[in-house]
Structure formats: structure tokens, C-alpha cells
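Weekly sync, protein design subgroup
Attendees: M.S., D.O., the rotation student, P.L. (late)

Item 1: inverse folding check
M.S. brought a backbone from last month's batch and wanted to see whether the design step gives back something sensible before we order anything. D.O. pointed out we never logged the input encoding, so this time it goes straight into the notes. C-alpha cells as presented (260 positions):
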């Protein structure tokens, strides 16, 4: 009987400690609700910045209309993007039409092949400090995306696009799939690899690197995103929250408006 009493007490203590540790663990995480509002499946992917862990195995399948909740440490920084047109059961290389990471479903830290619309996150370990996030077209575009806190606030929202950028993408920037359909639009830097477009070397300052006709086209279609390296004012959002929503194709696919 004494042994049973001791075991019962020990088990109760274990449950209390487990509950406290589990609660502390959840308190040290940020929830990211990845929502696919596109009328087709996507394969969201994640890649950490140096020194940070891989989250959500680096990639997963997300059917149209579905939401996947993933977790990141509260001091995590990295990038999230959507891959499109993937077929991991074939011998195709790459496995995805856009955003491919060496043909893998779980990117496991690999960075996707541009051009992709890139969500960039920098979470802060100090909960009193805001988290920073933005959407970048510096390497190009494949899908519209919106980011906001779960409790939606205009000041905490990176909106979608007012136009379908693929419809207005110049021929020299277009990425076509095997059927000749435009699946992405390169940035001028990615397409031409010139210092003046990439804002490097003698053009490596805001004074020297100005918007190009291409970055202006990107900005007109997607005014809430970075259109080139020194986009000003910087479309960077900083809001404190434990929950964020990342919505791909955040409005009707035809108009790609800014509502989430």
C-alpha cells in the first residue's frame, strides 16, 4: 500500500511538472496560421535564418481552402513562401513549378528557388517588443499573400495585391511552365543580374539605387510589398502578438484585391 501511495504521489507530481513545462513551452512559441485561399493546392515552405531551427519540417501540403497551424519559437526569424504546381511522385526536376527546394516536400532548411513571393519574419524573444514582418518581391512574384495578427488590425496587416502581377509581367521577366503558362514573374535583379537593379556595389545605397520601371510595375500591383531592395518608405510591419495569419491568395483569385 505504501508503494502504491508513493507511486500515485509521484505520478501526480509528474503530471503537474509536465503541465507546467508544457504550458511554458507553448508560452515560448508563436502560432502561425497558414491559410490557402487559392482555388488550387499549394505547398507552403519555411526556411530559417542562420542559427534558428527548421519549423514545420520546412514544408507541407495544403489543399485549397484549408488552414495549417504551425509553431515557431518566439525568437525565430526566417522566411515562408508557397510552392505551386508540385508533383513529388514523378521524376520531374524540379518537382515544383515555383519555389522548389531540391525536389523535396520537406525543405528542411533549404531555400526555395526564386522567383517567389516571400514572407519574412523576425520574432522577438522579449514579449514586450513587437515582431517584425514584411512581404518581399525583391526576387520576384508567384502568388499574392497577406499577413496579419489573428485579431485583425489595419496597422498590423500587410495586404495583398490590387492586380494579378502575372497578367502584366513583361516577357523578359516571365517564368513559364511546361505548358507555356505564366507561373511566376522574375524581378529585374533576378532576370538581368545587374548592379543597378540589384542595388549592389556602386549602387549599394538608397541614394544610388532608385526604383526601376520594373520595380514600379511591381509596386503598382502590390503596394504593400517590398518592390526592390531600398523600397521607401519601408513596408515593414511591427506588431506584438502570439498568433499571426499568413493567407495565400487572400481575396478572389481574379482580382487579387487587398482584403484577407
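Designed sequence read out in the meeting:
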Amino acid at each position: 500500500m505504501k508503494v502504491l501511495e508513493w507511486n500515485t504521489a509521484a505520478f501526480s507530481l509528474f503530471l503537474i511538472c509536465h503541465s507546467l513545462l508544457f504550458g511554458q513551452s507553448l508560452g515560448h512559441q508563436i502560432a502561425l496560421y497558414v491559410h490557402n485561399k487559392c482555388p488550387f493546392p499549394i505547398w507552403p515552405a519555411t526556411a530559417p535564418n542562420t542559427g534558428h531551427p527548421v519549423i514545420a519540417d520546412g514544408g507541407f501540403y495544403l489543399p485549397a481552402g484549408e488552414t495549417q497551424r504551425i509553431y515557431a519559437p518566439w525568437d525565430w526569424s526566417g522566411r515562408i513562401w508557397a510552392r505551386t504546381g508540385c508533383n513529388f511522385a514523378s521524376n520531374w526536376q524540379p518537382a515544383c513549378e515555383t519555389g522548389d527546394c531540391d525536389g523535396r516536400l520537406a525543405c528542411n532548411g533549404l531555400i526555395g528557388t526564386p522567383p517567389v513571393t516571400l514572407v519574412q519574419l523576425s520574432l522577438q524573444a522579449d514579449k514586450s517588443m513587437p515582431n517584425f514582418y514584411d512581404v518581399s518581391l525583391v526576387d520576384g512574384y508567384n502568388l499574392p499573400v497577406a499577413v496579419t495578427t489573428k485579431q485583425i488590425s489595419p496597422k498590423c496587416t500587410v495586404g495583398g495585391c490590387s492586380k494579378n502581377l502575372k497578367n502584366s509581367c513583361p516577357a523578359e521577366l516571365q517564368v513559364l511552365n511546361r505548358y507555356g503558362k505564366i507561373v511566376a514573374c522574375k524581378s529585374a535583379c533576378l532576370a538581368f543580374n545587374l548592379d543597378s537593379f540589384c542595388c549592389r556595389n556602386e549602387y549599394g545605397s538608397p541614394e544610388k539605387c532608385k526604383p526601376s520601371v520594373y520595380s514600379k510595375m511591381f509596386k503598382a500591383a502590390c503596394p504593400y510589398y517590398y518592390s526592390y531592395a531600398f523600397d521607401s518608405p519601408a513596408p515593414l510591419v511591427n506588431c506584438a502578438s502570439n498568433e499571426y495569419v499568413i493567407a495565400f491568395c487572400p481575396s478572389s483569385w481574379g482580382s487579387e484585391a487587398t482584403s484577407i
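Discussion: DSSP finds four helices and twelve strands in the chain. The two ends are 61 Å apart (CA to CA).
Action: P.L. to compare against the previous round before Friday.
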